[in-house]
Amino acid sequence: MTAHAAPPSAHGPGSGPGPEEPLPPARFALGAQTWREIAYLLANLPYGIVGLVYALTLIATGGGLAVTVVGLPLLAGGLSGSRLYGRAERARARRLLRMRIDEPSALSRQLQGDAGGFFGWLWAQLKDPVAWRALLFGVIRLPWGIATFTVVLTALFVAWPVLPYIARGLTNADRAMARGLLSPSDELERRIAELESDRGVVVDTAAADLRRIERDLHDGAQARLVNLAMGLGLAKEKLLSDPEAAASMVDEAHGEIKLALEELRDLARGIHPAILTDRGLNAALSSVASRCTVPVKVTVDLAERPAPAIEGIAYFTVSELLQNVSKHSRARSASVEVWRSGDRVLLQVEDDGEGGADLGGGSGLAGLADRLGAVDGLFTVASPQGGPTTVTAELPWRDRAAG
Q1: What CA–CA distance (Å, rounded) separates 111 from 190?
Q2: 122-170 pLDDT, tens digit each
Q3: If you write DSSP's letter for every residue of 285-308 in order, what string do you get?
């Protein structure tokens, strides 16, 4: 009886994790998969020599010169090369052992030093776990390669009947080593990608908020205060020659001051309202609801206050949603509910408008979803044509002391 080769995996290097396709059982006659395993085991020796020589050279030169200006950069560059060695070993395992083994993600641009320059790149390379695991894999391969080469070569000539079983047992050990040292940590890789994405969202949001504040100051309060200063200057000049005109100008300036103060209060409310800091979400959301163009019922059921950062995100989320209600919904009434469920804060804003809102509709909902996602929050929209529209958001609670 002959062994049949296992069909090649339909998944490429970038495929998601999943159970490997079962290999055919080892048999006395040498099938295609057994020959692939034998080829892998015999190639362990040259690959092991390359890996160990590279690792020892890198450690000896980079580590030995670490006290000089070239040592650490040399070590960092060598660690980049060890990633290439790991990639070659993963490709060999896929081709000959029929393993499903993904490629780890590349170092993020932020970690490579977009903001930190050369030293950011250096530090990122030196602490790269993928490179260090590949280097360790290279170190342990030579003794293992000598053993597998010797055993398989001997079995080819003197223990032929049991060679398939020997090859299968040895390559199973190889598979375990490859999974342990060359496979990416799926959860860690996923989390790194999420954090990189969330960091970009936070940075973009902060930049947009700063531009908005600058624009509001320049076009609003700043321009009004400039006009006020000019008006007071003219009133000063007319104070003796035309007291009545000067008094009229002072009255106008008084009105301008009131408008400027109102604009500054609105701007401060857009940054972080004092009422939220002093009295919490219930009072702050009631204040927001009072400025909505439709009647809004506010219900806040929180026995205690969450972390200040979470309170702020909840406040601005509801504020933007109620602005959408005013501008787009054509609703007659709306409601806001806030409550705690376990370690989450839940918000729900509902209106009886015409519906049709969605995350891609240009209403700012996609931006809200991104902002909540950046703090491990969730954001869902249910808005059929004809209404009603219900927007639900979840945020982590986080203790106020830790906020």
Answers
A1: 16
A2: 777 788 888 888 999 999 999 999 999 999 999 988 878 888 899 999 9
A3: HHHHHHTSSS-EEEEEE-SS---H
In whole angstroms, what is the distance from residue 91 CA to residue 83 CA? Answer: 12
Residue 213: both structure tokens together: 């504040």
CA-to-CA dists, residue 10 to 6, 23, 37, 182, angstroms: 12, 15, 20, 20
pLDDT digits (tens, 9 = 90+) for 352-403: 988 888 776 555 787 788 778 777 788 888 888 888 999 999 988 875 554 5
Q: How far is CA 139 from the centre of its chain?
A: 33
- CATH number of the structural domain 197-271: 1.20.5
Tokens of 238: 């007319």
Residue 55: both structure tokens together:
């690792």
Q: Which fold has domain 274-402?
A: Heat Shock Protein 90 (3.30.565)
Q: Which amino acid is it at 317?
A: T
For the chain, the domains span 32-184, 197-271, 274-402
